[in-house]
C-alpha cells in the first residue's frame, strides 16, 4: 500500500529502547467545558511530565520521540458545515502528522506510547496501523464512544465518537482519511470498560469481536478479561491499545470531561494493562484534563497507571511482515 506515512527507515537493531514517548496535546475533539472556554486535555502531556513520568520511563530505556502539536481549538458550534465534526480540518491535519510520527517510531523498532490529548487521536493510530500492518484494536474506555450519524443527531464531537470512526461508522472525511478507512477491522476490535447502561453498547457489541463492560472486570478481575482479549482471533497479530482514563471511577479520576460512576479503580486498570500491554505494538492514553486537577493529585494517578500498567508495552508484540 502506498502512503505518505511510510518512512522506509529500518529499525536500528538490538538494544533499542522499547517505548517511544510521543506527546500529542490535542483537545480538538471535545466540546468546550463552558461557552468560550477551551478543554484542558491539551495540557495533559506536560502535566504528566511534571510528575516525573518521562524521567522514570527514560531511565528504563524509553526515548522521548517529541511532540506533535495540533492546530488551534475553535468552538465552531452552530457555525460548522452540516455533516462535519468539530474542528474537522484541524483534526485531519493533526491525524496525518501524528500518524507519520507513530509509523516512524514503529519503523525504528520502538513501541509508540502517545500521551494525549483527547481520544480523537485514535484516527492517527488507526491510519498508522493500516499502513504498517498493525492488526487489531483494544479500546479501553468508560464509554463505547460509538455515537455516529446513524444513531444520533447530536454527533460532531469526535472524542465521543472515536470508536465509531475507527471501524468505519462515521462521515467519510473522518472515517476514511486519505482512503485508509476503516482503520481497524470490526472483527479484530475489542472494547473494555463501558458502563452497563451505556446507550450504544447494545448496538456496538454485535459488530465487534468482544465487549467487556467495567462491571465484569471488577467482578472477575483484569487477568480474566485479559485472557479473553488475548484469545480473540486476529489479535495474535498484535493491536493498538487505546486507554481513556475515564474508564476509572470518578472516585479515583474526576479530572475528565465525562465522569461516570461504576468504573475501575486504578489497581484494577493496572492489572488489566499489565497483561495486555506487552502484546500491543503501541498505545495511547487520553482525556485526562489538568484544569480539573489543581493540586496535581490525579496527574500522579494517571502517571502511576502508565508506569505500572504500560511499562512493558510492546515487549511481546508480534513483528509485522
Describe this structure in words.
By secondary structure, this protein is an alpha/beta fold. It contains 11 helices and 8 strands. The chain has helices at 44-50, 53-59, 88-107, 122-132, 162-166, 172-175, 201-204, 214-220, 222-230, 266-276, 297-309; strands at residues 19-24, 63-67, 111-116, 136-140, 189-192, 210-212, 239-244, 280-286. It has an 8-stranded parallel sheet with strand order 2-1-3-8-7-4-5-6, with helices on both faces. α3 (88-107) crosses α4, α9 packs parallel to α10 and α10 runs parallel beside α11. The protein is globular, with a radius of gyration of 18 Å. Mean pLDDT is 93; it is low at 1-16.
Shape: globular
Helix content: 25-40%
Could you describe the largest sheet, including whether it forms a barrel? 8 strands, parallel
Q: Number of DSSP helices?
A: 11
The fraction of residues assigned to DSSP E strands is 5-15%
